[in-house]
Structures are given as structure tokens and as C-alpha cells.
TrEMBL record:
The keyword Membrane applies. It holds the Pfam family Glycos_transf_2. It is found in: Membrane. Residues 7-177 form the Glycosyltransferase 2-like domain. It is a multi-pass membrane protein. One of its GO terms (molecular function) is glycosyltransferase activity. It comes from Saccharococcus thermophilus. GO terms for cellular component: plasma membrane. The chain crosses the membrane at residues 238-263, 275-295. InterPro entries: Glyco_trans_2-like (IPR001173), Glycosyltransferase_2 (IPR050256), Nucleotide-diphossugar_trans (IPR029044). The lineage of its organism: Bacteria, Bacillati, Bacillota, Bacilli, Bacillales. This is Glycosyltransferase involved in cell wall biosynthesis.
Length: 330
């Protein structure tokens, strides 16, 4: 297989504290891969600024002026991590043979990028980065993550266990992903649906070296709920089933109450009545809320609004415009 043009896509949101080091570390990776003949000239790093409020875009522009490997995409506002990542993938596929996505904090082990490229050259269209363990997570995060993967598995959703968004995708896989037009994006569920030849590479996740996590508990829960409701209608079926069981129980209770009354042993039973009312009322509200969530997603999909808006793109300098020193570097 010919040497591929590789693009590393890095979504960024308020990452001024980590961006300079991230650019340096990823540049070293590309330089080593070029020296070893594993990738072609034209390979690059693409930072995607997801409407950051700090100096993230300013730093991306500075890096692109000083570093021929660095390019950038600036979104017009904050669209969210998944849409920012998709914007980078869509832009990168135009002039790349394969694309690797990775978060800006570099908690994912960049040393396995070499193995990703080797797997691509062996004929794999998708290479998943999979964590060996979750030792760097808190107990709560480990427990909720395990619950989420098991829950999604029971729903019949195909997910790669302990995989986030650290993966390689071939141009063919990216072209196929472009045919998925949904607005509610959950890439961890969408990519396995492509069905191309895939494999996994294990790695150890590190601690974040600077800055704060952009996925606090509230965002993680919202992300998990989006994943569930975007790929399965099972929760609605469960509510229907629970409602049916509640109806049967209330019917039995009604028959029992009628028999007791006919036998002349009727009692007031206010406590049981109120408990039943609160139970049924709560169940109805949950059901209405869940149905509303699905209707809201349908509403978002049928409007067909753009999933993201790109304000500016920084391209790599052409090889002819580079100095002799930079050509040697490439």
C-alpha cells in the first residue's frame, strides 16, 4: 500500500492551556512517521475550534504560521464536541487518505498512532483506540461508564467497550459516514454501523496534563442520554410495558376492593390510594417526558438545519512555499 496522507483532527473548546504542548507532541509524532516512511508529505494536524471563549483560535493561528503541519477550522459558535469533531472529519477527508481523531488534552496515548497507521496499511478501514483499564477515572465515573456500556448492549446498540473518540478512519469510511445525515450525532454508535473491516489497539489512558475536563457530570449524563435516545426506542417500549403491568395490578386491586365491599368489610384505605395515585402519576410524567424527548429529536431532524457552520479554515502551506529547512523537516 502507498504511503497515506494522514490528518489528525483535534476538537478544541477553551484549550489555550494545553494547545501549544499538544501541537508540539503531535508534530513530533508526524515527523517520526514521515522519517520512517509510514505517511506521506501533506500529512497534518487539524485543530477545530468549537467556539472557544479564550485564546484557543489565536493560538491555532500562531501555530499554523510557525508550524507547517498545523491547520485549523474555526466554527462560527459552540456546536458541541461531536459536531466539532464531525466538522473536522468532513473537512479533513477532502485531502486525506485516513484521519485520526483525538482530544486536545492528550490523555489518549499518542504513541499508538504509529500502530493505527500500520493497521491501516494492513487493510483496516477503522482502527479503534481502546483503553486497557479505567484506573485514571474516579470510582463513580468507572461505575457509570460500565453501566452505560452494558445498558447500551442490552438495548442492542453496537458499541466498542472502553472506546471514546480516539480512532482512525479511512477515506472510504469517512465518505460512508457522510451519508448519515442525522442532526443528533453520537459517533461512538454511528461508526460501528459502517460495517467496514475494523480492529482495536489497546492503550493506557493518562491524566490530563493541564486545564480542566470539558465533560463534567452534567454533560456526561446528557451525552449518555443522547446516545440512548438516538439509537433505540426501547425506553418507550419499557414505559409501555410498565404501564401495562400497572394497569393489570390496578385491575386486580379494583376487583379485590369490590369483593371486600360486597362482603361488607370495606375499609377507608387512604394511604394505599394516595400511593397508587402518586405512582401512576409519576409513571405518566416519566412517560410523557420520554416521549417528548423523542418528539424533540424528530423535530430537530425534520428541520434539516446545518449540523455546524464553518467560519474560517486555515490550510497548510504548499510545499513550494516552504523554506529549504522546512522541506527537510517534512
Amino acid at each position: 500500500m502507498n504511503k497515506p496522507i494522514l490528518t489528525i483532527v483535534v476538537p478544541c473548546y477553551n484549550e489555550e492551556e494545553v494547545l501549544p504542548k499538544t501541537a508540539k507532541e503531535l508534530t513530533n509524532v508526524l515527523e517520526n512517521l514521515l522519517e520512517d516512511g509510514l505517511i506521506a508529505i501533506g500529512s497534518k494536524i487539524m485543530f477545530v475550534d468549537d467556539g472557544s471563549r479564550d485564546r484557543t483560535w489565536e493560538l491555532i493561528e500562531q501555530e499554523s504560521e510557525q508550524n507547517p503541519f498545523v491547520t485549523g477550522v474555526k466554527l462560527s459558535r459552540n456546536f458541541g464536541h461531536q459536531k466539532a469533531l464531525l466538522a473536522g472529519l468532513e473537512t479533513a477527508k477532502q485531502d486525506s487518505d485516513c484521519v485520526i481523531s483525538i482530544d486536545a488534552d492528550l490523555q489518549d496515548d499518542i504513541s499508538v498512532i504509529r500502530e493505527f497507521v500500520v493497521k491501516y496499511q494492513e487493510g483496516y478501514d477503522i482502527v479503534y483506540g481502546v483503553r486497557r483499564s479505567r484506573d485514571t477515572d474516579t470510582w463513580f465515573k468507572r461505575a457509570t461508564a460500565q453501566w452505560f456500556y452494558r445498558f447500551m448492549q442490552k438495548l442492542g446498540v453496537q458499541l466498542v467497550y472502553n472506546h471514546a473518540d480516539f480512532r482512525l478512519m479511512s477515506k472510504r469510511a469517512l465518505e460512508e459516514l457522510s451519508r448519515y445525515p442525522e442532526v443528533n450525532i453520537f459517533l461512538r454508535g454511528m461508526v460501528p454501523l459502517l460495517g467496514f473491516r475494523s480492529t482495536q489497539v489497546l492503550y493506557d489512558r493518562k491524566e490530563r496534563f493541564a486545564g480542566e475536563s470539558k465533560y463534567p457530570l452534567k454533560k456526561m449524563l446528557a451525552f449518555a442520554f443522547d446516545g440512548i435516545t438516538s439509537f433505540s426506542v426501547a425506553p418507550i417500549r419499557w414505559i409501555t410495558f410498565i404501564g401495562f403491568i400497572a394497569f393489570l395490578l390496578s385491575s386486580v386491586a379494583g376487583i379485590y376492593a369490590l369483593i371486600v365491599k360486597l362482603l361488607g368489610h370495606a375499609e377507608s384505605g387512604w394511604t394505599s390510594l394516595m400511593i397508587s395515585l402518586w405512582f401512576i402519576g409519576g409513571l405518566l410524567l416519566i412517560g410523557i417526558g420520554l416521549i417528548g424527548e423523542y418528539i424533540g429529536k424528530i423535530y430537530q431532524e425534520v428541520k434539516r438545519r446545518p449540523r455546524f457552520t464553518i467560519e474560517k479554515v486555515l490550510r497548510s502551506p504548499s510545499l513550494s512555499s516552504l523554506s529549504e529547512k522546512e522541506k527537510v523537516r517534512l
